[in-house]
Design brief:
Elements: H1 12-27, H2 31-38, H3 42-49, H4 57-67, H5 72-82, H6 89-96, E1 101-106, H7 117-129, H8 135-151, E2 159-165, H9 166-170, H10 176-190, E3 195-200, E4 214-218, E5 224-229, E6 234-237, H11 240-256, H12 260-272
Parallel strand pairs: 1-2, 2-3
Antiparallel strand pairs: 1-4, 4-5, 5-6
Length: about 280
């Protein structure tokens, strides 16, 4: 029988699933047998073990009683529920660190792969101030930005294709010094041999084929994976067949966007326009 391999380091939900599976295996129980003891279906147990369903506090408390683990699983489930990362994103990041090609389209903010530390800190501080995330979750986000950027410096270098909606450039984050440094970072990034940076200007209008941020990975074996998110939900697509339409839309977006030279010129003009 096929068993999905879990990387407990990839996310809190994967770590919980791996721990639950280990405890079940140690007792020789099937997923259905554990489900009977917990009051859940075997399908539910499978979804928790493979990270497709995060554990609720009730589920974790019940598992602690069945396994005799005190409050260990309940405490571990708290990390799952308090993480600042949307579902699917931790696994996406683990694949991004090995991808041969990375394509991304962002709206509203400069994407994490291209953020300066000052920009990331200002953006996160504002999110914490609104009460959308805790300071601890903010620290998690900033650490993840640094980790993702560091992973780009590998051999062989990945190709990175970036399309920024014009709103990414127009929206101020932090003070003028923060934005000036961020513009400089974008120009520097575009000058690298393994990167392409383009701007999708506002006047594209209805010609813009994508309306939400999207990331597409080409893995070393040439399989595809995509990740897209709204304000509250993330969706990771692992089936290449379903990623292909997204990749087609991305290619259409690149064709309609400004060239890299014109995009860099726009960034330089915006930078000059700041004090």
């Amino acid at each position: 029988m096929y068993r999905k391999e879990l990387d407990p380091e990839s996310s809190p939900v994967a770590a919980f699933g791996e721990r639950l599976r280990t405890l079940r295996d140690e007792r020789g129980w099937t997923q259905d047998e554990l489900g009977e003891r917990l009051g859940y279906s075997g399908t539910h147990i499978s979804a928790v073990e493979t990270g497709r369903r995060p554990p609720t506090r009730h589920f974790a408390n019940s598992a602690d009683k069945v396994f005799g683990t005190g409050d260990r699983l309940e405490r571990q489930s708290t990390a799952v529920r308090t993480t600042a990362l949307l579902e699917g994103f931790p696994e996406f990041v683990s694949r991004e660190e090995k991808a041969a090609e990375i394509r991304l389209y962002e709206v509203g903010v400069v994407p994490g792969l291209l953020q300066t530390p000052q920009y990331a800190a200002a953006l996160t501080a504002a999110t914490v101030k609104r009460g959308a995330i805790t300071p601890e979750q903010g620290d998690e986000r900033i650490a993840l930005v640094a980790r993702r950027q560091a992973s780009l410096n590998r051999t062989p270098l990945p190709m990175v294709f970036v399309v920024l909606d014009e709103s990414c450039l127009r929206r101020p984050v932090g003070d003028d010094a923060v934005m000036d440094a961020q513009f400089a970072r974008l120009i520097e990034f575009a000058d690298q041999p393994n990167t392409v940076v383009q701007v999708a200007p506002f006047d594209m209008g209805v010609r813009r084929p994508l309306s939400l941020p999207v990331y597409v990975l080409t893995l070393p074996d040439r399989s595809l994976m995509s990740y897209a998110e709204s304000a509250q939900r993330g969706h990771l697509e692992r089936e290449s067949t379903f990623v292909l339409p997204v990749l087609t839309a991305y290619h259409q977006l690149q064709a309609e966007a400004l060239s890299q030279a014109a995009s860099v010129a726009m960034i330089e003009e915006l930078r000059k326009g700041r004090p």
